[in-house]
Hints:
2 copies of one chain form a homodimer.
Chain A: E1 2-6, H1 17-25, E2 28-32, H2 43-50, E3 54-57, H3 59-63, H4 66-70, E4 78-82, H5 93-101, E5 106-109, H6 114-117, E6 132-134, H7 146-155, E7 160-164, E8 166-167, H8 173-177, E9 187-188, H9 191-205, E10 215-220, E11 228-233, H10 234-238, E12 247-251, H11 258-265, H12 271-281
Binding site for S-adenosyl-L-methionine (chains A, B): 9, 85, 88, 113-114, 164, 222, 247
Pathway (chains A, B): Protein modification; peptidyl-diphthamide biosynthesis
Keywords (chains A, B): Methyltransferase, S-adenosyl-L-methionine, Transferase
Amino acid sequence: xxxxxxxxxxxxxxxxxxxxxxxxxxxxxxxEHYTSILMAASQEELEHYYGKTxxxxxxxxxxxxxxxxxxxxxxxxVAFLVVGDxxxxxxxxxxxxxxxxxxxxxxxxxxxxVMNAVGSCGLQLYQFGQTISMVFFTENWRPDSWxxxxxxxxxxxxxxxxxxxxxxxxxxxxxxxRGKLIYEPPRYMSISQCCEQLLEIEDKRNAKAYTSDTxxxxxxxxxxxxxxxxxxxxxELVEYDAGEPLHSLVILGRQCHExxxxxxxxxxxxxxxxxxxxxxxxxxFKPAPWVPPAEEDSE
Amino acid sequence: xxxxxxxxxxxxxxxxxxxxxxxxxxxxxxxEHYTSILMAASQEELEHYYGKTxxxxxxxxxxxxxxxxxxxxxxxxVAFLVVGDxxxxxxxxxxxxxxxxxxxxxxxxxxxxVMNAVGSCGLQLYQFGQTISMVFFTENWRPDSWxxxxxxxxxxxxxxxxxxxxxxxxxxxxxxxRGKLIYEPPRYMSISQCCEQLLEIEDKRNAKAYTSDTxxxxxxxxxxxxxxxxxxxxxELVEYDAGEPLHSLVILGRQCHExxxxxxxxxxxxxxxxxxxxxxxxxxFKPAPWVPPAEEDSE
Lengths: 299, 299
């Protein structure tokens, strides 16, 4: 059996009881280690907690070396651990398909991920549109296809979850060229940098998908003891120091209900200003006033 | 301390280790019991598992009697358990705000909910638009405001998660009129009924937000041992007997990537037909072909 087990967001004890019981049965335990990190527990702590050796699985192992992971899983139990949920922001459907083709049974043990725990900022999950990813801009690579997606979401009034880039086990181009297997220290995008990149692209595109006054919610260390939310405009969040990673961001849509706003105000420095910013932003993409359709009366 | 603790989707052991540890510290334990049910565990089983009495909290208690729940939570620990995640489909932000106003500390212990576990059908979570709820139609009440939301999602190519109605502890109008406190047996909407209602409203609105040939994924008993997925058109799913509750549905959007489709084909009765249905459906809301913008060259 191959178990795909979500670890949740932060603590080692965020694993489900069922997940932990499954790990105890496994002869090999892999931890997916390139799309996210468990904030409050190191590899050693996890090994101690599980009573098992934990093998770190980088992108190469998962994408090209999956036969290694699946080896023997038709006869013994193997666990593949994923921070958050196995079908969260990065889905591991490929590994599942490969397993099935080798007649290996697969069991998924779900957990919270940023995709649903983001609801704890007070915005309703069913009011979110598509999720976007913000990557670190480089001198020559400043991708902005996410801009259209924010526009699409905001046109229909929806909130946008922005996932911020994580660079783990990356090589510099220099070291790669020299054939040196030296990894750069891990990098995690900050809310401030994300907001800067948002404003740079709005400046370039200038289609008013959002403005520097558009309200947003900064989310840091979601699900951990030091979790923090900050409500402010994108411009205000450029100046915001959110501290340690991991960070995410939600750009508000027009459909911000009263109860959602009331909850967000708890996280605003200046409640009156934030309220005014939200009201002002709701003028964007405002639909024409509703006119009762004459046809329906005759039904 | 007030703990809001997600129970996950199905098994009693789907609770996180941290959640279970918190319950053990609590002097009172409430279970929210009107928006969802834990499929594989009864109240008695939970009580035995936790070693605590579990008080069922109906809508009335949570919405009007929250002072009872919060009573003493500034001095002792109280748990409020929610199937799925406390900020999933139904958010309990109101209870959190009330607690904060009484200077009661609140800790959220997240878990998987349908809002993220739906990813296990193989569709990418970041390609989902707003979520809709389908209620039981009655003779005089057949609300269809969700139709516009499906249209909005599909216009920009996104998938739509449809949450199906649950009626727990409802009174019949007759018994209510007679002042008799008799509750109807719980009812859970089936995928088949949901698809019927979808087609009825498409028939009435006729704006082609979707058609009877639009592909969808039926999800039954998500996260449980008897979990099942079925890929088919809405018309095909009218005929589909998905068995025991709980059920949900995903209506596909145009942005169905190759890997998503490959995964879905595992759940189709007739793979070639489903593939053809998806390709045909992708013609809906297809944007005009892309023309390189002349301006960008000059930058």
